[in-house]
Write a structure and sequence with these properties.
Layout (H helix, E strand, L loop, with lengths): L3 E7 L7 H7 L5 E4 L5 H10 L7 E6 L2 E2 L4 H9 L12 E2 L9 H10 L4 E6 L7 E5 H12 L7 H11 L4 E4 L5 E2 L34 E3 L2 H12 L7
Parallel strand pairs: 1-2, 1-3, 6-10
Antiparallel strand pairs: 3-7, 4-9, 5-7, 6-8
Length: 236
């Protein structure tokens, strides 16, 4: 039986967002606060705070916009992920309009129809709402701890999943969206940080139909996976 635990990773500059986020959640959630402006440190602690009796763990960022019944909806979605039996099923709850691989994501979205329930990609592109199977969390974080060359916590997780050849599943429509707030990543704009298609803040995640088709671009997925996992060039 699928069971999802949840934590919130939060920064003090967005402290005002947190009470509303917790009130919207349909499950009790611990808030993991940033302690030294370190995205990986906060994200790893949020991920490691998973319930040991859960099958999956959801980490939400403090600027997430949620529908009603989010966690219950994620549990229902996980029951319908069209992955081969016995394979891990990470979810990215958001498919955004900008960064990274914008053209690639647009090509996926252009193929989505009313009967589409899932997008599948070789990478995890956004960190606003990430669900990992608890069976991979410890290994994922240990791997990420060794990759200090990668600043973003979501990108470290993505690279780990690449090394394991684990596909990332994106519910369609997205189950979270971005609040209109400045990015905490230096040099990143907040303009246009919205989901291609969000289920809606007034909707219930339990009303989504996850039995529909999957859209993927296998050849391009393989190309991007190669780009993500090839060895880094030595710095001089």
């Amino acid at each position: 039986m699928v069971r999802v635990s949840v934590t919130v990773m939060a920064h003090r500059t967005r402290e005002a967002f947190v009470p509303e986020l917790l009130e919207r959640l349909d499950r009790e959630a611990e808030v993991i606060w940033d302690r030294r402006d370190d995205r990986w440190d906060t994200g790893r602690r949020a991920m490691l705070a998973y319930d040991r009796e859960a099958t999956h763990h959801l980490v939400l960022q403090d600027d997430a916009v949620l529908p009603r019944d989010l966690v219950a909806g994620v549990e229902r979605a996980l029951d319908h992920v069209p992955a081969p039996a016995g394979t891990p099923t990470p979810l990215c709850l958001y498919a955004g309009r900008i960064r990274p691989f914008r053209t690639y994501v647009e090509r996926l979205v252009d193929q989505a129809r009313q009967t589409t329930s899932w997008l599948s990609m070789a990478q995890l592109h956004w960190g606003v709402g990430i669900v990992l199977p608890t069976e991979v969390i410890e290994d994922c974080i240990a791997w990420g701890d060794r990759r200090e060359d990668i600043a973003n916590y979501d990108k470290r997780i993505s690279r780990y999943l690449d090394t394991q050849r684990i596909t990332v599943w994106y519910p369609w429509p997205s189950l979270v969206d971005h609040r209109d707030s400045p990015s905490l990543v230096p040099g990143r704009t907040s303009r246009g940080r919205y989901a291609h298609r969000f289920i809606g803040a007034d909707a219930s995640a339990l009303d989504a139909d996850w039995s529909g088709q999957t859209v993927s671009l296998p050849q391009l997925n393989q190309h991007l996976r190669h780009r993500q996992t090839r060895p880094l060039r030595a710095r001089t």
